[in-house]
Write a structure and sequence with these properties.
This protein has about 80 residues and is mainly α. The chain is built from three helices and two strands. The longest helix is centred in the N-terminal third of the chain and has 23 residues. The N and C termini lie far apart (about 55 Å). The structure holds zinc ion. The site of zinc ion has 8 residues, from helix 3. Zinc ion binds next to helix 3.
């Protein structure tokens, strides 16, 4: 039986989680205020928009904001 615990590994995981949190915070700070596709204004205060709009965060810090209409059009293309 190998009883050795891999503490180093779990520490590594924790650090990664923190990095992701920082990335998300940066992403929110850099968040576009319009739909990336059709330039429709995004209102942070509008709860419906917060639910419906699609927010994609990429590892390089790029944030793509897509309104409900464009998200629908996108999924149509993909499920052709
Ligand atoms: Zn749009």
């Amino acid at each position: 039986m190998n009883r050795r615990t891999r503490r180093a590994m779990s520490k590594g995981k924790l650090k990664k989680l923190n990095d992701v949190t920082t990335q998300v915070e940066n992403a929110i700070a850099n968040m576009p205020k319009k739909c990336t596709k059709c330039d429709k204004d995004f209102k942070m205060s509008d709860k419906d928009q917060l639910d419906d709009w699609n927010i994609e965060v990429y590892l390089d810090g790029t944030v793509k904001l897509t309104c409900l209409m464009c998200t629908k059009n996108n999924s149509k293309e993909q499920t052709k």
